[in-house]
Amino acid sequence: MDIFTNGDLGVDGNTSHETGQERLEGTKSQGYNHSDPLDMFIGIELLLRFKPLFLPLYSLVVVVAGVGNSFLLACILSDKKLHNATNFFISNLAAGDLLMCLTCVPLTVSYAFDSRGWAFGRVLCHLVPLLQCATVFVSVLSLTAIAVDRYVVVAHPVRRRISVWSCGAVSLGVWLLSLALAAPQSLYTRYMDLRPNGIDLVVCEEFWPHTGNLRLLYSCFTLIASYMIPLLSVSISYCAITVSLKRYSVPGEPSNSQQRWSQRRRKTFSLLVASVLAFALCWLPLQVLTLMLDLDPDFHIIGKRYINVLQVCCHLVAMSSACYNPFIYASLHSKVRMHLKGYLCPCRHRQREMVERVSSRS
To answer: Start and end of every G-protein coupled receptors family 1 profile domain (predicted)?
Structure first.
């Protein structure tokens, strides 16, 4: 897990398991105080100084993302009028964010600030990196699915919408593909308990093969996939809709599809673009920092003392991406705002429903 810096462990991202363990165990012969792991780590002491700042911020992210995405899922599932393909993919996006903020964030933060290292066992050591990386690909593929669905709806309004079962199949495929793409990170994660060797430390870190540049290639692939896929999908969808509408329109006479597109364009693509930009901007610092560490294993660009703090800062910004989609969706969707008012002011909401029923009967 990259949040606990490899630089402090004296190993880089391309170090093998055996070499990493030799270096870790070799600290016994260097005169370190084994009862105090802070003596082994250059940057952890600086990081612990900021613990009173980071813990409340992480707690805020977990609470806001947890409540926001739970509310968004509840709105979509409870209102049959919101049961369509776009909202189904948005709920898939919210489910991934909810899973990440409730499982990955607390365990990763605990690992970053606990001087004894990983405290959750071997299974979670492999599972947490897998889920954290998989949720990134779930977000990317869900945003891509939303862009494709928007193109089909606007450019081909007569075509039959994708069914609920088909949406479920697409979502299942998104999760399976995301888990497959995230598997290398979990595969090369090693759980090493150094307590039998006299060091009160349990390490859960990535140790990639020393031969080749697999770690660097995977970092480049993740960086490109995280940005090129959603940004290209939105751009291509927008251009395809524009071309399709111009092709089937009469010059000087706006068609029904053009009118429909002009009405929905701002709301629909504002939601999609805002979600893509929020995701891309939040994950950019962590992806760039990870790539820099892979390119600079000897820490010439960034000193070891500051790696931990920078990684936690970038990780916090990346995790905050789970907070924004509920606000973006609520600000652009009147039905979600109506549900929100109903949850916050149930009495007024019931009165309004009664008035609407009476007026509809009359």
So the answer is: 68-329
